[in-house]
Design a protein that fits this description.
By secondary structure, this protein is α/β, with parallel strands linked by helices. The protein contains eleven helices and five strands, in the order αααααββαβαβααβαα. It has a five-stranded mixed β-sheet with strand order 1-2-3-4-5. This is CRAL-TRIO domain-containing protein.
Length: 279
């Protein structure tokens, strides 16, 4: 183990075996990622994993029918770029929609394709960063996107990413923000923890990132020195498609809510942000 005692991972695995409604097929390194995101706290890690598994069970819109070779998923892959870059002790995660007319944009398919990226990242990215920097590229966002999205689902999905994923979010940048970004943000902001609202910055263009992030950590598309974002995205997609059989399993890492004890209801974590400290 690279950071946490092997006994910590064993303790989490023993706990999972006792909770019959939770899956017990997590790789050791995936469990270590959860431990790392919760700063080694076993109790917080258990809550995080429980929310991760139970939320996947109720979000059928994005956690079923995820065949990476289906036409709808291939279309979603073709109009997005999802990439990660190591930035010293930190990890940068970029999500970009590349569809100016938004004619091919399908809300649930975009989120569904993103979950495939997340799952392959969980299984293969052997890096435990001190924190995560999230970059949301809004260059294709226009007023046309508003009737295409389900705001209520988006808020819940965003909270799920923040509170149930094994990440330590330290900064979120919305780049190439359109003039009306404040109206879009206003739809989501009420559901976000105050700590998260305080670390969100909207920037007018990608060059503005250079003030906050060293160019050597940014992709060439953003005037940086790191490898191409599009090339890395294509490599991720190839890897996802090679693991197709895994993603055809609609029960992957899901809780069996029918087996969940009535007395063991998951405490609401909305607004808690896993009680992590934000630098």
């Amino acid at each position: 183990m690279s950071q946490y005692d092997l006994q910590d991972v064993i303790s989490i695995k023993e706990w999972l075996e006792k909770e019959s409604y939770l899956p017990n097929n997590f790789d050791d390194f995936v469990l270590e990622k959860f431990l790392h995101s919760c700063y080694g706290s076993l109790e917080r890690t258990k809550k995080c994993i429980e929310k991760f598994c139970t939320t996947r069970s109720v979000m059928s819109e994005v956690y079923t029918s995820r065949d990476p070779l289906s036409e709808n998923i291939k279309t979603a892959f073709s109009i997005t770029n999802v990439t990660t870059y190591e930035a010293g002790d930190y990890e940068i995660v970029i999500h970009q929609v590349e569809d100016p007319t938004l004619e091919r944009y399908q809300f649930y398919d975009i989120l569904k394709s993103f979950t495939l990226h997340i799952d392959i990242w969980l299984k293969t990215q052997k890096f435990l960063p001190e924190g995560h920097i999230i970059i949301l590229d809004m260059k294709s966002y226009s007023l046309r996107i508003i009737p295409k999205i389900n705001v209520f689902f988006l808020r819940e999905f965003f909270l799920y990413l923040l509170e149930a994923m094994p990440v330590r979010v330290k900064q979120i940048y919305g780049i190439n923000a359109p003039p009306f970004y404040d109206k879009l943000y206003a739809l989501v902001k009420p559901a976000l923890p105050t700590e998260i609202c305080n670390i969100i910055k909207f920037l007018p263009d990608c060059e503005s990132l250079h003030k906050w992030i060293d160019k050597k950590y940014l992709p060439t598309e953003y005037g940086g020195e790191a490898p191409s974002m599009k090339k890395q995205h294509e490599d991720w997609v190839s890897q996802i498609q090679a693991e197709r059989d895994m993603f055809l399993n609609d029960n992957m890492w899901k809780a069996d809510l029918k087996k969940k004890p009535k007395t063991n209801e998951l405490n609401s974590m909305n607004g808690s942000f896993k009680t992590l400290c934000i630098d």
